[in-house]
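Let's sit down with a protein and look at its sequence and fold side by side. Which protein we use is up to you, so please pick one and set it down. Label the sequence line and the structure token line clearly, so we can match residues to local backbone shapes. Go ahead whenever you are ready, and we will take it from there:

***
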Amino acid sequence: MSGSVDLSIILVTWNMRELVLDCLASIEAAELGVSYEIILVDNGSSDGVVEAVGRQFPRVQVIALPHNLGFAAGNNQGLLKMSGRHALLLNSDTIVLRGGLERCVSFLDEHPGVGIVGPQLLNSDRTKQNCIHSSPTLVSELLSQSLLRRLLPGRYPSKRVSYSEPIEVEAVLGACLFVRGEVIQEVGPLSEDYFFFLEDTDWCHRVRARSWKVAHIPDAHVIHLSGKSSKLPLPLRTRIEYCRSRYTFFRKHRGVISCWALLAIVVARVALGSVLGGRRAREYRKILAWHWRGRPASAGLSAGGQE
């Protein structure tokens, strides 16, 4: 990381060619007021995205991986190649708007104690998305995040509140996450214990543990097409992967007792769903069987070649 440019923009893709091309076009159209490079990491796509990007955006650096390593590992490949002072992890299903990226870079430059920032993500109709995360706890597992955001907006910030200035938060969404190069060197890259889900929350948690701050910038805007890059053809494996990521986070950061308590909460809910879940009861039974088999990682997305 030589710092030869202000910002290294890293996109990871798996069979999302049109989204990638639209995202890259939006970056060009935004005419960024900072120096930048773009690194595209392709997780073994079969849709010709590498060739299409090479034709239409020849300045983009492309890392073509032979198979899908997952979101965290894919981004880490880009981080290894970055030359910017700061890095931006940007989902392929985003549209960059004028001024948004520059605002986040300026905030990092003006606040040396802040390690990670995230903008306000917008839907295509310019309404706000929830893009602030809270690190999962047993309380948040027992009660829904939505309920906690209603009951305790100060503790669980969300789109429900209109913020007039940047606020310190626990975590921001990895769909558009800026990180200081110095932080990457000190804390390390994304944890590859996660294939998909919670790798961004884990990173923010580790950054805060090293006394860096994480901030949400409400007046910086980026459009996020509401998870189109993660609409996967294998919903059962997706849900299993999310369960696995939660267990991984608790194992790393919450201790043995909390891990067992989380397991009890999830199994109880899944068992109830397998009886009362209606059309989804069969899916709940399969998730319950996954727990019975010892929660093998091979049952998640990494086995299906998904991002």
